[in-house]
Amino acid sequence: LVKYTQPLFVKSEDPDSRRKIAEKIRERVTSGKDFEQLLLFPEGGCGNRKALLQFKLGGFAPGVPVQPVFIRYKNELDTCTWSWEGPGALKQLWLTLTQFSIRCELEFLPVYRPSEYERENPRIFADNVRSFVSCWTETPMSCFTVDDARFLKMAKDSFLPPTAALVKLLRLRKSIGRHHIDLSDELLELKGKRKYFEKMRGNVKHMAFYLGLERCPEVLKDFYRTLDQHETNSLDVRVYDAGLYLLRTDLKVREKLKRAFRVFGTENAPAEHLETILLYWKGVPTLKAFSKLDKFDPEELHSS
């Protein structure tokens, strides 16, 4: 029955499978052949329905119009929400089957037609569609992707605050093969590199050069976007080093925060550096959002 609908099967953990599916999606929507409309779930997985996760690019790379559809489950007892933490799939299925009925509402939003710039930039296209859906349905947006789930668990298991910035850092270190490197050793290596690194601020390519990733700067984009809260396209490369200090589990909270500040080269950190620490440790994007700044205390930052 599933095969009758002409589905595209993808193995999410296999990059080659994802690439082939992206090519097939492009072929279907641009070939002019008599295919049915292609149904995609842009988040790429399940969330808790409290916010929109980041959209994946597969459905936006072809640069053709899309029609968002928003699904609402109206039952008082929610048995349809299934995320990385909580009951397993079988239990959720059993609880759903015990309901007398499942009320589901589909809202078809207006067709979104991409601009020329969006057609050339799938990431912008996907983000703008997500913003459109968010505004239309009054649903907040999240910095997380469905792929961040296991790194959220990793942060939780390490007694770290599950903020987007720290999760993106954990994921970045995994993707570039540095998750096995001792944090102290990596910090020592970067400290030596900073002595000969004249310009500390720059775009994502500049940070890639600092981290020795100049051949694949795209691996940094998600992390960079999360830290670049003011969208200036100019970050201090030491935000990476500061994050490494905050990942350390061998230091007390006050000490790791102090060292994270010091990595910027000053005891009295300017507002931008303080915002970086707050973003990492509390998920607070700006100083204005931190109402208790005049009572700043590392131990208070550690509390949830």
TrEMBL record:
Ranges in coiled-coil conformation: none
Molecular function as annotated in GO: lysophosphatidic acid acyltransferase activity; O-acyltransferase activity
GO biological process, one term: phospholipid biosynthetic process
Spans traversing the lipid bilayer: none
Keyword Lipid metabolism: yes
One Gene Ontology cellular component: endoplasmic reticulum
Record's keyword annotation contains Membrane: yes
Alphabetic keyword roster: Acyltransferase, Lipid biosynthesis, Lipid metabolism, Membrane, Phospholipid biosynthesis, Phospholipid metabolism, Transferase, Transmembrane, Transmembrane helix
Protein name in the entry: Lysophosphatidylcholine acyltransferase 1
Organism of provenance: Trichonephila inaurata madagascariensis
Taxonomic lineage of the native organism: Eukaryota, Metazoa, Ecdysozoa, Arthropoda, Chelicerata
Gene assigned in the entry: Lpcat1
